[in-house]
Structures are given as C-alpha cells and as structure tokens.
Amino acid sequence: MDKSVATLDKGTICSSWNYCGQRLATGSVDGTLAIFDSIDPASSSFTCTSRSRVHNASIVKVVWIPPEYGDAVACICADGTLSLWEEIAEDTKPFQWKLCKLFERHANQVLDIQFGVCVTSLKLVAAYSDGHVKVYELLDPLELTNWQLQAEFQNSIDSVSKFGKASCLSASISWNPVRGENQQSSFALGFNSDMPELNSSKVWEFDQDHQRWLPVAELALPGDKGDQVYSVAWAPNIGRPYEVIAVATCKGITIWHLGLNPEVDGRLSVDKVALLSGHKGEVWQMEWDVSGMTLATTGSDGMVKLWQSNLNGVWHEQAAFEPTT
Question: Are β-strands 82-88 and 72-77 bridged in parallel, bridged antiparallel, or unpaired?
C-alpha cells in the first residue's frame, strides 16, 4: 500500500534531499524555503519544521551544502539571485535559517549550481545565462560567508576561441562524486543554449600545477555536439576501471564511459555505450543511486523511470511510474 511521506506546501516547485541528515528542503513560487525533518524515527513520514521567506521571487532550485560543512542550502531564484542560507542557533533560541552569503548579482541569471568537495577545500560551480561558468572556493571551512571567485570560463573545448554573447535557457552541472586523494577535482557541464559550441557536455578537471580548469573530454559524437543538453549526472564509482556519466538531450539519454587515464594529449577517452529512449518530451532531471548502478529519470511527461545495465552491459528500463493526479 502506497502512503505519503510528506505533504509539501502549495506552490512548491523544487526540492533537494539531504541523504546524510535525512532532511528535505523545498522552494516555492512565493520565495519560501521550507525544511522537512523526520520527527519520529519509527515513522517514515516527514514534517515541516521551518518556513522562511528568503526572497520576493520564486525559488527555482535548492541545493544542500555537503554535510561536513554544516546545515546550509543554496537557493537560486527566478530573478537569477544566488544566496546561501545556514541553520544556526543563537543563545537559547531555537534553530533558525539565516542568510550567510548573497553572491554578487549580474545582469545574467544563475541557471544551475553544484557544490564539490575537493582535497583542499569546498568549491561551488555556477552556470550563467550568458554561457559563462564561475568557480567559487570556500576559503575558511568554518565560515560559510568567505567565498572567493577562483575561475571564470566558457564551456568550450577550444579555449582560444571567443564566442559572442550566448542566450541559455538552462544548464546542468554534475561533480565527480568520489575522488581519491591523488586525483584532481572534476565535473561535467552542459548547456541548453543558442550557441552550439557551448551546448555539449564537457568534463572539466582542475590542473593543480597550473591552477586552472581544463576541458579533458567532450561527451558527444561529432554530429551531436550542437545538441542542447537538458541534464547531466555523474555516477558514483565503486571500483569500475572507468567513470559512467549520463547525458540527456533531445535525442534521449546517452550513457558514456569515461577513461581514468589521460591520453598523450591530456584528454580522457570516451565511449558511448547506450542511448535510452522512453520519455515523451524533455528529460529534466537524472539521479544515480549510491551504488552508481541504477539511474532515475523524469521530465516533461511526468513519468519517473528507472534504468539498469545487465551483466552483459546492455541497458534497459527496469521500472516506470505514472504521474498521479
């Protein structure tokens, strides 16, 4: 028998799950940030424990900060504002959510952000509506207000080329979830824009020796490089000799294998192993399970689908869930 685990506020348009703390954050059209917690450990239901009006515009995305850095969420609002809110306790007062960082605002809107835990620090990648990418670094792990702009670039393999101003509807960022101490930080990024050179998903890796971000792979075949990207998702790696990344475009969901060892030119090998089709319309969001074996997808058709690979490496649809009214 199915049962509801949480009743969300009317007007909720985005959510983010905190796996470590078993908490849910949601954003609403009226700019309200709501936090849901499990009050009764014996129950699987969640209750809203906090509501904070954080902006006058709609909250279009919420993202939890990695748990080792505390309880905080980043909010992207419909006007492009990016802010970081932290749960803190003052004296004998109950926990409250307070603004700890309002990132500088420009004419261009923030489309997507993701946090990445690196060997030396916490980083935040933000993609903007003009096709630019900014990487911020937290200078003090105990002070979430202290962020510094580390790099800014465009999502292009040919770093020498200069493009005109792009118009981007959306972007998707996915960090490599697990890195060894001797491996550099990396993330995948794709755009849905009017600039073909910026669209295809690229893998960016931090070059520690030269303190810069370099494109080390492009997840697209020659004829597909201009395709608009709706979502990217980097799978956890539990011992595979390659990485697995899913990319959703207008042609479906592509599964890529990414080599671990750089070739002579410094690039990583890529291999397209599957093209998954089954959604009617755009795929907006993709999430891997903690093992990196099952991919969950959803999109404009309201369907939620689960995909898995069999022992022969053939990908198939494992389950599909219809939307409810």
Answer: antiparallel
Closest CA to 73 of 106, 103, 97: 97
What region does 269 belong to: left with phi over 0, alpha with psi -120 to 50, or beta? Answer: beta
- The span from the CA of 257 to the CA of 315, in Å, is 13
Q: Which helix (H) or strand (E) holds 196?
A: helix 196-199
Tell me the pLDDT tens digit for each residue of 111-133. 999 999 877 789 999 999 999 99
First-to-last alpha carbon distance for the chain, in angstroms, is: 17
Query: Average pLDDT of the chain?
Result: 89
Quote the Cα angle for 159-273-259, to 5°: 50
Long-range contacts of 237-243 (CB under 8 A, 24+ apart): 237/177, 237/178, 237/292, 238/291, 238/292, 240/292, 242/271, 243/176
| 313 exposure class (CB count in 10 Å sphere: 0-12, 13-18, 19+) | exposed
Q: 146: Cβ–Cβ under 8 A, 6 or more apart, which residues?
A: 138, 139, 140
